[in-house]
Amino acid sequence: MYEFSYHKASSLEDARSTLATAEDGKLLAGGMTLLPTMKQRLAAPTVLVDLTGIDMAGIEGKGDNIVVGAMTTHAAVASSSLVQQTIPALAALAEGIGDPQVRNRGTIGGSVANADPAADYPAALVGLGATVVTSKRSLSAEEFFTGMFETALAEDEIITAVSFPVPEAAAYQKFPNPASRYAIVGVFVAKTANGIRVAVTGAGGSVFRNAEMEQALASNFSPDAVKNIAVDSSGLNEDIHASAEYRAHLVGVMASRAVAAM
To answer: How high does pLDDT run on average in the chain?
Structure first.
């Protein structure tokens, strides 16, 4: 690693002000992506602002929503009886992230802020129509994710919580990379108060909805309604793990499996 300054924030305002005045500051939550990136010298922030001293963890029900604090670990989401009872698909998604070490250190806020194109949480946020609450404002999930590793967050803006509307039913299915457990393709399907939502992660540069599948499921909610819908492979991710064409095929397969699991 390169030399950097370390600051353990005592409050949200302390973290925000330190981040705002740093030449190149980065927030440290679980560190599951940032620290390996720094060790590989792919990132060299001048200041690390540690959020672990700030009370932003916890899960609670607020009306028809489940609000998850930004510093809540994946393991806590997976094991929460409240999440298991109200949005079991979200608990199952969290249980499938990485390995036990990652799940016990990684946080929902860190994952969402990182906006990895193969991460699982973005599919849940977009699929459920979640709201990202920050130190400055509230953003819909579709407003929040703007591209590959890109979000609508300002330089001194910090995620404080994610609010998930409780759906009528939901399910998430992914084809995982066998080593990292990241989604080569993952599809989150939800029946919500505002209709059917189908969110895809891993396939493109950022999470996206599939309108054609949503319309098909609105007319006929069955696995057969989506499994043969052709997905355009142009613009999809292509790497050593899967071609763009294979990812396009997997979108239909995972969507069909998600519907079958509901």
So the answer is: 96
Helix axes 88-95, 121-128, angle to 10 degrees: 170
Count CB-CB contacts under 10 A for residue 238.
Answer: 13
Bridge-based pairing state of the strands 138-140 and 47-50: unpaired
**120 Cβ neighbours under 8 A, 6+ residues apart:** 93, 94, 96, 97, 111, 172, 174, 182, 183, 186, 201
Regarding beta strands 47-50 and 5-8, do their DSSP bridges make them parallel or antiparallel, or are they unpaired?
Answer: parallel
**pLDDT tens across 126-160, in order?**
999 999 999 999 999 999 999 999 999 999 999 99
| The dihedral sign for the CA sequence 208, 112, 246, 252 | negative
The residue count of the chain comes to 262
Percent of the chain past pLDDT 90, that is, above it, reads 97
The CA distance from 18 to 40, in Å, is 25
Nearest to 262 by CA among 170, 174, 196: 170
Give pLDDT tens digits for 216-257.
999 999 999 998 899 999 999 999 999 999 999 999 999 999
- The Cα diameter of the chain in Å comes to 58
Question: Domains, the chain, ranges and CATH?
Answer: 5-50 (3.30.43.10), 59-261 (3.30.465.10)
